[in-house]
Write a structure and sequence with these properties.
binds pyridoxal-5'-phosphate, EC 2.6.1.9, globular, three-stranded antiparallel beta sheet, alpha/beta, 12 helices, Aspartate Aminotransferase, domain 2
């Protein structure tokens, strides 16, 4: 083995100019007892479900010399029936996490000379995937309570004519859900596709409709979902979308052949068969979320209303100091969102008790 020259770095590579100086996306993955930083479901699969997954993968393994079903037909049918709303497999597309779904959307509808638009603070992967696909990014600010002012949105759309509009609802990192009538107005005004990123849809409060209800009337609307959050399956990497079948046809032009492995398809189908167990904690997590919001307010923190499995709270003069003081007590939360705010993922009752105790100590309240 040869020894590579030590002085050779990323900067010496013929990297694209627009990637120079950028850092890779990702929250710290630290091994501490209380991990509340990436919006995962805190409940691991039961041993019984782990066994069912292992058995299904063993059966699939007998055919691993062959490529998987390129169109993931059974999985898409299973996801469609999970979503309901009269959707079929033809309306659904799946990939390795919803991030890959979003990337395929930008590959098909964005690209050089085109722009995507988002309303920030929001999910930072939207601009990152846009840039990665050579798509311009237009950021429109949300208002002081993290809502999207529809008139501002419509004016920005008229000015920039974006090929892709991202609406995240419930929004990450603020937890804010959008009004369904506002989503419809944006969908009517936008000249390109409108992506409603519903990664946290299952956690929304009662009475908050999903944008799935708008699909029948809006053929350029796309609703993206994931099995990473409510479904407690982040490690399996399964995301999906629902849209008009023509949108699915467009994505087939850019997807890599056999992008979704046979193992992934089997794991996702088995998970769908056990959705009662996997989604079983969602109501408890919603209740724990509402309790966290109330507790934080009682203790004088500013808190954004949340329809998701996390809570954004503040405001801190030095949020890094608070984040570090939490970590020193073995509680990992996320330094993300507008300056002065921090985000905590809703965990088990025990984890939330640890969070509350650590926060009181970290802030001297
Ligand atoms: C977590 C998250 C995703 C999910 O990503 P996966 O690739 O499916 O794990 C998508 N959108 C938002 C807004 C998220 O917070």
């Amino acid at each position: 083995m040869s020894v590579e020259p030590v002085s050779f770095t990323l900067n010496d590579l013929p990297l694209r100019d627009d990637l120079r100086g950028r850092s890779p996306y990702g929250a710290p993955q630290l091994d501490v007892p209380v991990v509340l930083n990436t919006n995962e479901n805190p409940h691991a699969p039961s041993p019984r479900l782990a066994r069912a997954l292992a058995d299904a993968v063993a059966a699939t393994a007998l055919g691993l010399n062959r490529y998987p079903d390129r169109d993931a037909v059974r999985l898409r049918e299973g996801l469609a029936s999970y979503l309901g709303h009269g959707l079929t497999g033809a309306h659904v597309w799946a990939a390795n996490g919803s991030n890959e779904v979003l990337q395929q959307i930008l590959q098909a509808f964005g690209g050089p000379g085109r722009t995507a638009m988002g309303f920030e603070p929001s999910y930072s992967m939207h601009p990152i995937i846009s840039r990665g696909t050579g798509t311009g990014w237009v950021s429109v600010p949300r208002d002081a309570d993290f809502r999207i002012d529809t008139d501002t949105a419509l004016a920005a759309i008229a000015e920039h004519r974006p090929s892709v509009v991202f609406l995240t609802s419930p929004n990450n990192p603020t937890g804010t859900a959008l009004d369904i009538a506002d989503i419809a107005r944006v969908a009517e005004a936008a000249p390109g596709v409108v992506v409603v990123d519903e990664a946290y849809a299952e956690f929304r409060r009662t009475g908050t409709p999903s944008a799935l209800t708008l699909l029948a009337d809006h053929p350029r609307l796309i609703v993206s979902r994931t099995m990473s959050k409510a479904f407690a399956l982040a490690g399996a990497r399964v995301g999906y979308l629902a849209a008009h079948p023509a949108v699915v046809d467009a994505l087939q032009l850019v997807r890599l052949p056999y992008h979704l492995s046979a193992v992934t398809q089997t794991v996702a189908l088995t998970a769908l068969d056990h959705s009662d167990e996997l989604l079983g904690a969602v109501d408890d997590l919603r209740a724990e979320r509402d309790a966290a919001v109330a507790w934080l307010r009682e203790h004088g923190f500013a808190v954004a209303d949340s329809d998701a499995n996390f809570v954004l709270f503040g405001e801190f003069e030095d949020r890094t100091e608070v984040w570090q003081a939490m970590l020193d007590q073995q509680v990992l939360i996320r330094e993300v969102g507008p300056p002065g705010w921090l985000r905590v993922t809703v965990g088990t009752p025990e984890e939330m008790a640890a969070f509350r105790a650590a926060l009181l100590r970290a802030t001297g309240r």
